[in-house]
Amino acid sequence: MSWLQATLARRALQSCRSFTTSAPSRLAGSPNVVVTNLLTRRRTFATAALLWGSALAIAAGMTLSSTVHADAATPAPPVEEETRVDPATSIAFPTTLKIQSKTPLPAFTLMGVGARTVSFLGIKVYSVGFYADLSSPSLAMVPKDATPEEKIDYIVKNTACVLRIIPTRSTSYSHLRDGFMRAMQARQILCRQRGELSPDEELAIQSPLRQLKSMFPNTPLAKHSPLDILVTAPSNKSRTLVVRDLGSVQNDWLAREFVLAYFEGKGISPPLKESVVESTSVPSSSSSNARLQLAVPPRSQTYATHANVNPASSVGGSKPTAASLLSSALDQKQRAARREDSAGPFTLGIVPPRPDEVKPEKKWSELSVGGKVVRTTARTTNLVVILAGAGLTVVLVYALTSELFSRNSPTVLYSKSCELIKASPQVHQYMQGRLVFHNHPPTLSRPRHRNHYVNSQIFVDSAGREHMLLNFYVQGRPPGSASYTGEEEDGFFTRMSHKTQLAAVKLGEMSFEDIKEEATTRGIRLVELTKGMFRFLTGEEDARPAALPVPVPEKKVEETKGWMSSVTGMFSGIKGSTRSGSSSGEAYGGPAFTEGEVHADLVMNDQGYYQFRYLLIDMPNSNTRNPRRVFIQRADGVRETEPIIRWHR
């Protein structure tokens, strides 16, 4: 715009010069003409002067405005945040921490960083940074000859402090809570030993401790998510311990000792204490007005909500690192948005809502007709679900109780039958060793899947009485097998100890050749056992025949046969053949059995309980022609050849 201003000024000057040179010629006429010309020229000159004055004013204004614009200061470049990196975890902490709050808070200065490690392996749990308000006037009272530990104690007790905790790995709030509570219990014991905590004060801090414990939710805390714990400065009220986004506790002892726990002895984090001690040490060449070695960066704001203009950083400084950018982004995300508390469209409800997120529930009188219908439907649905769940629980408990503890349960009656068979001396005349019971025939050709339920059947006879039938199988040891007589009464370890002793005695009596032969025999037996197990698992039938009963030699008694025996022998074939099975009361001297099929018939009595009508065993099974039958329980009216009732399973 400078060429336009020069052109207008040049033309205005030329117009003034031409008007001055033409003035005598205009005054040379008659007086009347001169007067008329003067009046006309006067109006013309006034109009021209007005126009040219306006042009000059516009040009002067544009000239002045451009001059002011040229002299204005250039805007300052954006301020880059300075950070300090924890060397153990490579986590960056801002040197100046500004916490957003409804009440104005000062800017906190970083005094030290360190890592918290656990176990002898030195596993790093989190990095912690200690911040303090170094602009507080109370720091002017710090003694010059105070040790670094005394300075730290003075800072914690007289200024606002912040502990920023950043996990190095994904953890949970409950894990941090347990560590904090252990530290507080240790501080409580230490203060009691030093006489700094009276019984009344110890009783008064129990409620704040419980409040602090209940503040932490049972939710995960993501990796590199900062958790700020603020301790307010001393005032007329009690100091407050604030855990950001979780809550606060107001108690002087708890707020003070929570921070001092990190600096007692070696501290919760020894690197943090070393870093803070180094920052608070005073060099010998310091001036008289120096309080701390840590230099406070110049800033023009008093509170964290004001803009921070740092001239030194605007001129030059290091660029923000990736760790600092990540920390800032996580910090902003943590403040701006609430943690995830949903899985798809469903709300989990594990994170306590903020006060501004809780919508007050309307009273019943304030609801519209549609709102009343919706609330009634929702609560009715909840009630129906609760009642259905309670009913299902009652049904399951009743079913389990009736099956396991009822006297009429097939399982209970099966167990009672097994105990009666084990205790019967008549059974042991035919079967040796410990008896084992099965729901299938005890042979090597059993199906792959065994039944785990008792085979039972209930029916009503022609007289209206209710019967329960049980059918299962019993298996004994082969004849001649050695067994420990007290194995049923003794425990497992006693039986194993006895077997070990017998094996040791037998091994001591054997020669090298006998040991070699025994090892070969056991190896072959193990191979055969493995093959049989494989056939059993695959459902194949074993080709090995069942063990044959061992005949017991009978003693022949020679009698003197006369002529009457020869006569009676002629008519012996006329007598019909009878059932070979005999009553259980007869003495038995025949071969021993290893298998038996058990049948039980129980009748319900007048009291509503089942009682045995008969309990018998057919050896080796009921399908054999003329099996050996042994009665364990037998009611009146039951014949020796009582038919067995079967059913399809």
TrEMBL record:
Bias (Basic and acidic residues): 332-342
GO CC terms of this entry: TIM23 mitochondrial import inner membrane translocase complex
Keyword Transmembrane helix: yes
Main location group: mitochondrion
GO BP, sorted A to Z: protein import into mitochondrial matrix
Segments of this protein annotated with the region Disordered: 330-359
Keyword Lyase listed: no
Official protein name in the record: Mitochondrial import inner membrane translocase subunit TIM21
Signal peptide: none
InterPro entries the record matches: Chalcone_isomerase (IPR016087), Chalcone_isomerase_3-sand (IPR016088), Chalcone_isomerase_sf (IPR036298), Tim21 (IPR013261), Tim21_IMS_sf (IPR038552)
Domain Chalcone isomerase: 107-136, 155-277
Location in or out of the cell: Mitochondrion membrane
Gene3D superfamilies: 3.50.70.10, Mitochondrial import inner membrane translocase subunit Tim21
Protein family membership: Belongs to the TIM21 family.
